[in-house]
Design goal:
Rossmann fold, Alpha-Beta Plaits, six-stranded parallel sheet, four-stranded antiparallel sheet
Length: about 400
């Protein structure tokens, strides 16, 4: 469920006012607030310090000359100058681990988790391949499981590799990494942030957990090393989430008396989300995004109900999903709701296998609001689910992966 929806219902029930605040509000929230004249805007930071307008670094131009193809020359220059001034740097890489996949150079096979249909991530700290979904660990294989070749190599970039490269480039700098892999000890997160606040860390490398809440006036440079990664996801909210992340992390720079700088490294600099994030123009981003949502009947122009059928047997999961989709379409047609209830699928989930279960999803676009919700709820209450099948119902899903 969406906690904002629950909050609205609770506020209505108790006849209480509800205040939602964000520099990058949810598209649906902003749409409803602006249409109902319930929108209050703060056009300036509380201390009137100017926003740092990001610079977009085209990696098609700078990529080959970058350090290990990852850290561009402009970013290197800015880091050097920031350190010389005695100020601090935040570097965002929204992927954990050292490398993002291991591939056989002979046949192209990518080493995947046996229980999940995603690549295993190499972690140098534990010298293991690890699945970020089920936490399964395995040793680095000596040979390719497909062709038997020993030509296996790691590729891609995660926070561990960035930490290593930054230490190579700036050996005298105090570099720390913050992600969920190192926060296993109690209070580790607070201790790291306190060190950063006390200027005991020069460069902080981290995932999205550093994008919000850090209010350090000595941070004057923010670098986003792979700004494209959040947008290359088959989810209708991918652009929104990517824009939110870029805008939020950009806000960490220049929060005190010193002017801040922000650099986004991307291979797609003309993409509208980068251009609007560059100008810190939420309204412009919203205008573009809301048109696409309306064209394809995504929220706020419909309610999404996601059904996930899963089984340890791939055929059984698909068969059950197809049967439910067929019955739902039949009932929708029978009661004249075809125009208002659109069924998409079934299709394999983006992450098709998770924790040993094969997953198929049905997406329902409900344009009838409560009436459509009640219809789907009644339909689901009357269907029998086989014992070897799991049915998960996600109303207003936060993602469709």
């Amino acid at each position: 469920y969406d906690a904002r929806v629950v909050a609205r219902r609770l506020a209505q029930f108790h006849q209480a006012p509800l205040l939602l605040g964000s520099a990058t509000p949810d598209i649906s929230t902003y749409y409803y607030a602006s249409n109902n004249n319930n929108l209050f805007e703060m056009r300036k930071r509380f201390n009137n310090s100017p926003l740092a307008l990001p610079q977009v670094i085209n990696m098609q131009e700078y990529g080959k000359a970058s350090y290990r193809g990852i850290i561009s020359k402009p970013l290197q220059t800015e880091i050097t100058e920031t350190l010389e001034r005695g100020q601090q740097v935040i570097l965002l890489m929204n992927r954990r681990g050292y490398s993002t996949y291991t591939q056989c150079k002979a046949c192209g096979t990518v080493i995947e988790c046996p229980d999940c249909s995603i690549p295993m991530i190499w972690h140098t700290s534990i010298k293991k391949l690890k699945c970020h979904y089920c936490n399964r660990e395995m040793s680095f294989p000596d040979f390719c499981p497909q062709c038997g070749s020993d030509a296996l190599s790691t590729s891609g970039v995660g926070t561990q590799k960035i930490e290593l490269l930054i230490n190579e480039l700036y050996p005298d700098a105090r570099v720390e990494r913050i992600d969920s892999d190192i926060l296993t000890r109690k209070n580790a997160h607070i201790e790291l942030l306190n060190k950063f606040q006390n200027k005991e860390i020069d460069i902080l490398v981290g995932t999205q957990m550093i994008a919000k809440g850090l209010d350090n006036p000595n941070v004057t440079l923010v670098g986003v090393l792979s700004a494209d990664s959040g947008f290359n996801i088959p989810d209708f909210r991918a652009s929104e989430r990517g824009f939110q992340l870029l805008t939020q992390v950009a806000g960490r720079a220049g929060r005190g008396e010193f002017k801040g700088k922000v650099l986004f490294q991307t291979y797609n600099p003309d993409y509208y989300a980068f251009q609007t994030a560059k100008s810190q123009n939420y309204e412009k981003f919203f205008e573009t995004e809301i048109k696409a949502r309306q064209e394809f009947d995504y929220p706020p122009f419909s309610q999404i109900i996601r059904l996930i059928l899963s089984s340890q047997n791939n055929f059984r999961a698909e068969k059950s999903a197809m049967e439910i989709a067929l019955r739902l379409n039949t009932m929708t047609d029978k009661f004249g709701f075809t125009e208002y209830l659109e069924t998409l699928g079934p299709t394999p989930c983006v992450i098709e296998k998770l924790n040993g279960f094969y997953r198929f999803q049905i997406l329902i676009k409900n344009k009838l609001s409560q009436k459509g919700h009640d219809f789907v709820s009644k339909f689901l209450s009357k269907i029998a689910i086989p014992k070897d099948i799991r049915l998960a119902i996600d109303v207003d899903p936060l993602d469709i992966l």
